[in-house]
């Protein structure tokens, strides 16, 4: 389950995927038509991992019902600087592969 935003943090998108960071990459690269392409959603700012798909779906539905203020609170609780987690996690993975 994840939350993404655009460059100026004016739009928030909540989604769920079983494809991991590949799905985030699809959003960033505008691979599919829809909301994220239309509103230039390209920055991963919040991520939760689940072992059961049903739990991820339930969490996504829960957060989608929240106000923007509450979503911002959640993001800032875990990512106060609104750091792009996609860059953080993919760079970290790339760096770890190069050091092995």
- Structure annotation, total helices: 5
State the strand order across the main sheet.
2-1-3
Assign a percent range to the helix content: 40-55%
Main sheet attributes: strand count, strand direction, barrel closure: 3 strands, antiparallel
Overview of the structural elements:
- This protein has 100 residues and is of the alpha+beta class.
- The chain has a single domain (2-99), classed as GIY-YIG endonuclease (3-Layer(aba) Sandwich), CATH 3.40.1440.10.
- The chain is built from five helices and three strands; from the N terminus they run ββααβααα.
- The chain has helices spanning 21-28, 35-38, 53-64, 68-78, 85-99, and strands at 2-5, 12-15, 43-47.
- The chain has a three-stranded antiparallel sheet with strand order 2-1-3.
- A hairpin with a 6-residue loop joins strand 1 (2-5) and strand 2.
- The chain is globular.
- The N and C termini lie far apart (29 Å).
- Mean pLDDT is 90; it is low at 93-100.
Spell out the key features of this protein.
100 residues; single chain; 5 helices; 50% helix; 3-stranded antiparallel sheet; alpha+beta; GIY-YIG endonuclease; disordered C terminus
Topology:
Elements: E1 2-5, E2 12-15, H1 21-28, H2 35-38, E3 43-47, H3 53-64, H4 68-78, H5 85-99
Antiparallel strand pairs: 1-2, 1-3
Summarize, please:
The chain is an alpha+beta fold and 100 residues long. Helices cover 50% and strands 13% of the residues.
């Amino acid at each position: 389950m994840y939350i993404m935003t655009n460059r100026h943090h004016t739009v928030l998108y909540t989604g769920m995927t079983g494809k991991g960071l590949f799905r985030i990459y699809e959003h960033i690269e505008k691979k599919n038509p829809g909301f994220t392409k239309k509103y230039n959603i390209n920055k991963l700012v919040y991520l939760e991992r689940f072992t059961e798909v049903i739990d991820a779906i339930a969490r996504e539905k829960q957060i989608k019902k929240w106000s923007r203020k509450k979503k911002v609170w959640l993001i800032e609780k875990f990512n106060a600087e609104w750091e792009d987690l996609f860059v953080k996690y993919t760079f970290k993975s790339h760096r770890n592969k190069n050091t092995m």
